[in-house]
Specification:
By secondary structure, the chain is an alpha/beta fold. 37% of the residues lie in helices and 20% in strands.
C-alpha cells in the first residue's frame, strides 16, 4: 500500500494502464515535458516517450477531435483539457460526435476514450478555471461522467474508465488534488462505474454529494449531533439512484450538496428522483446546498461561494427540524 494524494493516485493509474496496454496514450496541452499544469502526468513522457504522451497545441477542439479519431481507430486515448473552462471549444466534438458515434453507427463503431478535466474552485484561480460543469455533460446521452473524492476511488475509477467501451469524462476536483493522503493499493484494482459509496451510515438524514464537497460534508457531520448517512456518488452518470432511494426511505430526509450553481444543477435532478421514489417516506422537503447562480467570483470571495460546513450544517438542522 502507498500513502498517496489524489493526483498521485491518478498518475499511478495512468502508469499502470499504459504499461499494461500499449493502446493507451495521452494527449493534451503541457502534459509531456512539463508533466501537466497540476503534474498529473509527471514523469510519463520520460517513461513512455513522445509517441504516447503527446504535447498538443492550444486547440481544445483539435485535441478532442484527434482523440475521437484515435478511439474509433482502435486505440485508447486519454485527452486532457487543462481546465474545465476550456471545454467550450471542444463541446461540439464531445457532444455531437464522441457521445453519438455508438448510436449513430448502431454499434458499428465505439469511442473508448477518457477525457480528463480538472474542475471546481477553491484554488484561487480566475473564473474560467473554477467552474463545476458536470450537469451540462450529464445532460448529454452517450457520455459517462465520473468525479472521485478520494485517492483510492480516483485510481480505481480511472482504471475502470480506461477499460470502458464508451467515452468517459473523468472530472478531477482540483481543490483536493493534494488536500490529503490515503492508503492506495499498488496493485491494480477497479472501482465500478455507476456505484455510489456510502461514506458513513446513519438513521436520521441522508446527505448526497460528490467531488471536493464530500470533505465539506464530513466536516459538517462532525459538528452536528445527529445520525447522518453520507453518500458519495462517485459516478454522476449513470447515477446510482438505488443507493440514494434505499437510504432516503430509511432516513426520511435528504440534503444534496454540490459546488455548481443551484438552478438546473444535478441536485435538482436528485431531488426530483427522491420525490418520485420516496414521497411517502419523506418527513421534510429535500434541501440543496449549492454554489450561487452567479459566475464564480475572484479569489477574495471564492470561499463565500463554495458550500462549507457552516452552510451544510444549517441545512441539516433545518431539515431535521421540519
Amino acid at each position: 500500500m502507498a500513502n498517496l494524494t489524489l493526483v498521485q493516485a491518478i498518475n499511478l493509474a495512468l502508469i499502470q494502464e499504459m504499461e499494461k496496454d500499449d493502446r493507451v496514450l495521452l494527449l493534451g496541452e503541457d502534459i509531456g515535458l512539463n508533466g501537466g499544469v497540476f503534474r498529473a502526468t509527471e514523469g510519463l513522457f520520460q517513461r513512455f516517450g513522445g509517441d504516447r504522451v503527446v504535447d498538443a497545441p492550444l486547440a481544445e477542439s483539435g485535441i478532442m477531435g484527434t482523440a475521437i479519431g484515435l478511439a474509433m481507430g482502435g486505440l485508447r486515448p486519454i485527452p486532457e483539457i487543462q481546465f474545465e473552462g476550456f471545454l467550450g471549444p471542444a463541446f461540439d466534438q464531445l457532444t455531437n460526435q464522441c457521445a453519438r458515434i455508438h448510436s449513430r453507427t448502431r454499434g458499428g463503431l465505439t469511442c473508448p476514450l477518457v477525457l480528463r478535466v480538472p474542475v471546481g474552485g477553491g484554488i484561487h484561480a480566475p473564473e474560467h478555471h473554477s467552474d463545476s460543469p458536470e450537469a451540462i455533460y450529464t445532460h448529454t446521452p452517450g457520455l459517462k461522467i465520473v468525479m472521485p473524492s478520494s485517492p483510492y476511488d480516483a485510481k480505481g475509477l480511472l482504471i475502470s474508465a480506461i477499460r470502458d467501451p464508451d467515452p468517459v469524462i473523468f472530472f478531477e476536483p482540483k481543490r483536493i488534488y493534494r488536500a490529503f493522503r490515503e492508503e492506495v493499493p499498488e496493485d491494480e484494482y477497479l472501482v465500478p462505474i455507476g456505484e455510489a459509496r456510502t461514506v458513513c451510515k446513519g438513521e436520521e438524514l441522508t446527505m448526497v454529494s460528490w467531488g471536493a464537497t464530500v470533505m465539506q460534508c464530513m466536516n459538517a457531520i462532525e459538528q452536528v449531533d445527529c445520525s447522518i448517512e453520507l453518500i458519495d456518488l462517485r459516478t454522476i452518470s449513470p447515477i446510482d439512484m438505488e443507493t440514494i432511494t434505499n437510504s432516503v426511505r430509511k432516513t426520511g430526509r435528504c440534503v444534496v450538496v454540490h459546488e455548481a450553481p443551484k438552478t438546473a444543477g444535478l441536485g435538482a435532478e436528485i431531488a426530483a428522483s427522491v420525490m418520485e421514489n420516496c414521497f411517502l417516506h419523506l418527513e421534510a422537503p429535500v434541501q440543496r446546498v449549492c454554489g450561487f447562480d452567479t459566475i464564480m467570483p475572484y479569489y477574495k470571495l471564492e470561499l463565500e461561494y463554495l458550500p462549507d460546513a457552516e452552510r451544510i450544517g444549517k441545512a441539516i438542522v433545518e431539515t431535521l427540524a421540519y
